[in-house]
TrEMBL record:
Keyword Kinase annotated: yes
Organism per entry: Hungatella hathewayi WAL-18680
Domain Carbohydrate kinase PfkB, chain residue ranges per copy: 1-316
Domain of life: Bacteria
Sequence similarity: Belongs to the carbohydrate kinase PfkB family.
Molecular function GO terms recorded: kinase activity
Protein's name in the database: Carbohydrate kinase PfkB domain-containing protein
Annotated keywords: Kinase, Transferase
């Protein structure tokens, strides 16, 4: 069992029931979630010692968010109580050709005001094996960006492997700001996860003369991008999920990985996911599956297959959290996608 630390914002999610549009809704379904919190829950479900680092307000809503993590055995002892509010996001779940829509209400949230002095990073990273963050956290505020770098420095000082999911969010910051902040943070990163949009918007990499949306040439585009990223940053692994959005209810799902040293490239099995129950948290469940596979000692191909299967299953589960077990994932990765009733 590995000790894995994730750091970011956990939010209150208010989503419309039954695929309603915002204007139709008379009530909202309540969940809690957020990029790194979702990763922590998955890893705890897989049996790892997982600690989530964040700040929440010292009020009942903040404690509800903490309780949501504790319910799934995520460590919460390093969560700071400070600030005025828990961030909120509203989700209008799409269907068929109508896309989902997210509205953020997270300005001045607790994590946006947190500073390194609020956390004992030496204690947090003591005996830790892995640290994971996303590009969402430094996008929340300048203070959160500084906090993220402080955490990365502390992780590296303790010999901890660092992974990032680039996760560009255009509603939080511009591509120009993202590139300035995130390029600096890449010096601490060993394992980088991000699709072609993330690579371009967050790090400025483009796939040469290859169109990554043109069917057979798609994988060549990723090879090109991954080689550029490995050349500049020396990542141990570069990974991307590959989503084919035929509609909001029907996606193709696979992923690819490159060994940054040998430049070996591998494309996973592809899943057809339809109907999609909830795609929010799909990327986080993928990142968690990958981290789990790598800390378990799997080779990069087996780790990627575990991650893709885990994330495919997440699309069938309501809410941000991927509430599947290792056995569930291993069964699907092993070829059992029948969905037959287990008796």
């Amino acid at each position: 069992m590995a000790k894995i630390v994730t750091m970011g914002e956990i939010m209150l999610r208010l989503s419309t029931p039954n695929n309603e549009k915002f204007i139709q809704a008379d009530e909202f379904d309540i969940n809690y979630g957020g990029g790194e919190a979702n990763v922590a829950v998955s890893l705890a479900n897989y049996g790892h010692d997982t600690q989530f680092v964040t700040a929440v307000p010292a009020n009942p809503i903040g404690e509800c968010a903490v309780a949501a993590l504790r319910k799934y055995n995520v460590g919460t002892k390093f969560i700071s109580r400070k600030g005025e509010r828990l961030g909120i996001y509203y989700l209008e779940t799409g269907s068929a050709m109508r896309a989902s829509n997210v509205v953020y209400d997270r300005a001045h949230s607790s994590i946006s005001t947190a500073v390194a002095a609020d956390f004992d990073f030496d204690e947090i990273f003591k005996d830790a094996d892995w640290f994971h963050f996303t590009g969402i956290t430094p996008a929340v505020s300048d203070a959160a960006a500084e906090l993220t770098e402080a955490a990365c420095k502390a992780a590296k000082a303790h010999g901890v492997t660092v992974s990032v999911d680039l996760n560009f969010r255009k509603k939080l910051w511009s591509s120009e700001k993202a590139q300035k902040v995130m390029t600096n943070l890449m010096q601490y990163v060993d394992v980088c996860i991000g699709n072609e949009e993330d690579a371009e918007k967050v790090l400025g990499f483009k796939p040469g003369n290859t169109d990554v949306t043109s069917g057979e040439l798609e994988l060549a585009g990723y090879v090109d991008i991954f080689n550029q990223m490995a050349d500049k940053f020396g990542f141990k692994y570069i990974i991307s999920s590959l989503r084919e959005s035929f509609s909001a209810s029907n996606n193709g799902w696979s992923a690819c990985i490159m060994d940054g040293k040998t430049r070996e490239f591998y494309h996973s099995r592809k899943y057809s996911i339809t109907p999609i129950v909830d795609r929010v948290g799909g990327g986080d469940s993928f990142a968690a599956g990958l981290v789990c596979g790598l800390v378990d000692g799997k080779d990069m191909k087996a780790a990627l297959e575990f991650a893709v299967a885990a994330s495919a299953l997440k699309h069938t589960i309501p809410g941000d959290f991927n509430l599947v077990t290792r056995a569930d994932v291993d069964s699907l990765a092993g070829g059992d996608g029948s969905g037959r009733v287990q008796r």
